[in-house]
Amino acid sequence: MGSDEIGASLGLSENKVSVSVKSRWLSAYDHFLGRKVEKKGLETEREVTTHRVVNTALNDVIAKAAAVAGDTINRELSENPEAARRMLSGLARAVRGVDNLESVLNYGLEDLSHRQIQNNAEMDVTLNADFLERFESYAERASTEEARLKWGSILSSEIRNPGTFSNRAMRVLDEIDKSDAELFQQFCAHRLGDNVPHLLTALTSHEQVRLERADLLISSELSYYQTFREEKLQGKKIWFANFGDFGLSIPFDIDLPFTKRRFDDSPHFLDHEGAPNFRIYWLSPVGRAVASLIDVDELTTAERFRSLIAAQVGSEEVHLLRRNSAGNVFVL
Predict the structure, then answer these.
(1) Are the beta carbons of 128 and 162 closer than 8 angstroms?
(2) Rounded Cα gap, residues 239 and 24, in angstroms
(3) CA 64 to chain centre
């Protein structure tokens, strides 16, 4: 491969990545860099070879402009060094922007190749044009490896689940303070679905305000609760609550340690019209998008939560349930 070429291989088998996911990746590559793409056998693997043409294109533009303008443009540039400097600076920025974008795309491809991806055949095969335009402006400014890795992960996540990242979410990711980002990452280690139970972790009031101001948590002006509902499990009445892909069951006839202290950090259950509930931190829409970039072990978190609830109610009949493969029923 020559110095003006760059290759990226999408060697992903069909049983891991759906055709629609591959199509979304190709649409992003084509939109950003206008590559010449070779496609081979979607039924097995697709090898995507991209040829870098930006430097050649820029040189062609410069040569054509010089040929048309002739002596006039040469005279103006020689008489106005500042104009020449601005032109060269603009060209240098354009080249750096393309280099940054290419690095982001390569990181995105690497991230995508290591993910277990669901086949969302009903989703669009191309990415939203508005997302692509806004994303490009951020990716072109990603001059550090850390920034390139971040925006590559964002692209990978959007390809897997289109519509995850709004303009607002991307702006937050671009502007977020490093210390707030680290705090949110630590906080998300306790996430179950779209919320974090107070029983698993407790933010200080200052930390909570920081995450709210960063638009990652719903405002604490209102307290949020997860309420159990009456269900049946194997023919027996239970209290049930679900958290994303997990659920929790408590024997219906057990005496629960209710408390009426609704506005403190008491770990005990609250009584909501006879049903148990407890306080949670609720992620904002932006927070949910950002959380999708953070790898967490939700199974371990769910098991820890079950153990804490079992200890609180004094019963080992508290069970952890998981959503079935169809996604519509919770099973032991």
Answers:
(1) yes
(2) 42
(3) 43
Domain count, the chain: 2
Distance CA 182, CA 250 (A): 35
The average pLDDT across 5-31 equals: 56
How many Cβ atoms sit within 10 Å of the Cβ of residue 227? Answer: 13
> Does 157 share its domain with 200?
no
Question: Quick one: 124 and 258 in the same domain?
Answer: no
Residues 77-96 have pLDDT tens digits of 566 666 555 655 555 555 67
Q: Which residues contact 88 (CB under 8 A, 6 or more apart)?
A: none
pTM: 0.72
Residue in the structure block whose two tokens are 């609760």: 225
pLDDT digits (tens, 9 = 90+) for 92-142: 555 677 888 888 988 988 888 877 666 554 556 678 889 999 999 999 999
Condensed to tens digits (0 to 9), the pLDDT of residues 21-63 reads 777 777 787 777 654 344 333 333 333 433 344 455 555 655 6
Q: State whether residue 197 is helix, strand or coil.
A: strand
The answer to whether 285 touches 164, Cβ cutoff 8 Å, is: no
Same-domain status, 93 and 151: yes
For residues 146 and 268, membership in a common domain is answered with: no
β partners of residue 279: 225
Q: Are residues 141 and 60 in the same domain?
A: yes
User: Identity (one letter) of the amino acid at 272?
Assistant: H
